[in-house]
Each structure stands twice: as C-alpha cells, then as structure tokens.
Design brief:
The complex is a heterodimer of chains A (89) and B (93).
Chain A: E1 2-10, E2 23-29, E3 41-45, E4 54-59, E5 76-81, E6 84-87
Parallel strand pairs in A: 3-5
Antiparallel strand pairs in A: 1-2, 1-4, 2-3, 4-5
Chain B: E1 2-11, E2 23-29, E3 41-45, E4 54-59, E5 76-81
Parallel strand pairs in B: 3-5
Antiparallel strand pairs in B: 1-2, 1-4, 2-3, 4-5
Classes of the chains: A mainly beta (89), B mainly beta (93).
Chain lengths: 89, 93
C-alpha cells in the first residue's frame, strides 16, 4: 500500500454501472517527508476521506477486496485515513 | 516475496472494517545485499514484526491470505521475520 494525499475528486455520470454511488478521488502518492511523488491514481473511496487528508491506498486486485468493491472494475481503493506515522530514517 | 526492513508504523483509526485490529508497518524493501531499493511502502503485519526488524513481505492478491481471504484489502503483507541480518546467506558478497 502507498501513502497518498487527496488532490481532488472526479465526477462521472456516464460510467460502468457497478461504479454507481462510489466516490472517486484523485490521490497523489507522497514520500515519508511529505513531498510529492510523480503520478496519481483515481481511487474509490471506501472510508470517507476528505480534502488534503493523507490516506492509505491499496492497488491491484486487492482493491476489489475493500468493502463494496466486490466484482467492480476497480484497481485502486482508499482503505484508511492516516492519523499519524513515525519512521526511523 | 522480497526482503525488507521495518522502518516505522502508521496509525489509522478510520479504516476499512476488516482491517480493525491489524497493524500497519512502514517497510523499506532491500536487495539481496540488504541495501535499500525503491521507495518505502505500507505493509500489513501478520506475524508481529517490530520496527528495525528484517522481514519479508508478500504482494498482490495473495497478501490477503493470512487474513480473511478476499475480504481484507491489502496488497502487501509481512509474512515472515528473518532471524537476524546474518541469517541472509548471500555467497556472492
């Protein structure tokens, strides 16, 4: 899983019907010191993350194991909002 | 699976239901000479690893197998603790 911060949202009315009712957020992966990494993902939010919050994003087929994502065309899901993290450099 | 060093912990109270009671650890993947490789990532702990320990993780769909299979959204799980740094036998160095 990666640490990311919420960049923005995606609104799509014309989409696969299994994505109906799912919140799509744009997540920017970040380093441990908070600086941005390259790239972004559009992730399905399963925990109600908000702007600028730091989140845990799971990728690949494991994203389908998040609540409500069974049999959905999803390869990236937000599974947790980060309160804090510590690390030894 | 690859070798990694546990370098930190992540606290998340608002999270997916099936992750309650699980521990998130920050891991830095290492190459066979135990040098850092790639950027750190978050792994779910299934064996009680602690910060500073040498572990190995399992990625992909199989990462959920130590838990409730196909209901635990993890793509990286620590599945083993290496006894010590010297228990990585690498004849090339």
């Amino acid at each position: 899983m990666i640490i990311g911060r919420i960049l923005g949202t995606v609104v799509s009315t014309q989409k696969d019907e299994r994505l109906l009712g799912k919140k799509l957020l744009i997540v920017k992966p970040i380093n441990l010191d908070g600086t941005d990494q390259s790239g972004y993902v559009v992730a399905v939010d399963t925990v109600g993350a908000g702007y600028h919050e730091r989140v845990i994003v799971v990728g690949g087929s494991s994203a389908r194991m998040a609540e409500g994502n069974k049999d959905c065309p999803v390869d990236s899901a937000i599974i947790g909002v980060i309160d804090s993290f510590e690390f030894i450099s | 699976m690859q070798i990694a060093r546990v370098i930190g912990t992540v606290v998340s109270t608002v999270k997916n239901e099936s992750l309650h009671g699980r521990k998130f650890l920050l891991v830095q993947t290492l190459n066979a000479d135990l040098k850092a490789k790639g950027s750190p990532m978050i792994a779910l702990d299934s064996v009680g690893a602690g910060v500073g320990e040498l572990v190995f993780w399992c990625r992909g769909k199989e990462a959920s197998f130590p838990f409730k299979r196909d209901q635990t959204p993890t793509d990286c799980t620590i599945v083993g603790i290496i006894d010590s740094d010297s228990h990585v036998f690498n004849p090339s160095n």
